[in-house]
Amino acid sequence: MKRMILIVVLCVAALGVVLFVQQSRKSEAKGGVIEAIEARRSIRKYSDKSVEREKLQKIAECGVAAPSAMNSQDWELRIVDSKAWIDECTAIFVEQIQGTPTGDKMLTPDFKNMFRNAPAVIFVAAKGDAYSDLNAGLLGENMMLAAYELGLGTCCLGMPLMVLNEHHPKGKEKLASLGFSEGYRLRYALAVGYADEAPEAKQRDLSKIRFVE
Ligand SMILES: Cc1cc2nc3c(=O)[nH]c(=O)nc-3n(C[C@H](O)[C@H](O)[C@H](O)COP(=O)(O)O)c2cc1C
After folding, report:
1. Strands 153-157, 120-127: parallel, antiparallel or unpaired by DSSP?
2. pTM across the whole model
């Protein structure tokens, strides 16, 4: 009788272990890369909470873990979490867009800065050969997904290039202060911060995908 009870107890324990492993595999799958890809959104409202530097470093490292043609790694990243730097750059931007349709759209009462109000920005520059834009793009998606996993929101931004370029009388100084190496051109800025909104997914056109028989 005792042996029977022992066998039953062992069977129940074994079943419990199997169910536990299955369950944890399921939850691993839920928190995986595909879940991050499907849930990521461009965030344009951030809380004032600053982003921990360890997290910014990790996001950047995940960026440079991206593939690049012939492992060229022809990118450079600059991380800015200085409010003074962001505000100075924003002042140049505001001067430029004030009184324009972009200004009317962006300069709302909740406007804090030109990086969609984010407290931190990662600037990505690349050298100008054939694959550099592709490489920089792959790096960017890696960073956005890593940020998502770390509980942070992001928004890839092309608009700051309006100001941060070598032809802009004031913006060129700000660009120079990022200290990119000779031959590297700024490609985009990645806003990073704690999200203060949860936007709906934007529609994707799945008809762009086709199998060829
Ligand atoms: C190269 C690039 C430049 C972008 N520039 C801006 C920008 O200047 N301002 C902005 O608000 N969003 C910008 N975006 C974000 C896109 O608008 C956004 O990814 C798109 O609407 C899809 O929305 P989702 O990211 O939430 O899926 C940019 C995205 C990319 C890839």
Report:
1. unpaired
2. 0.88
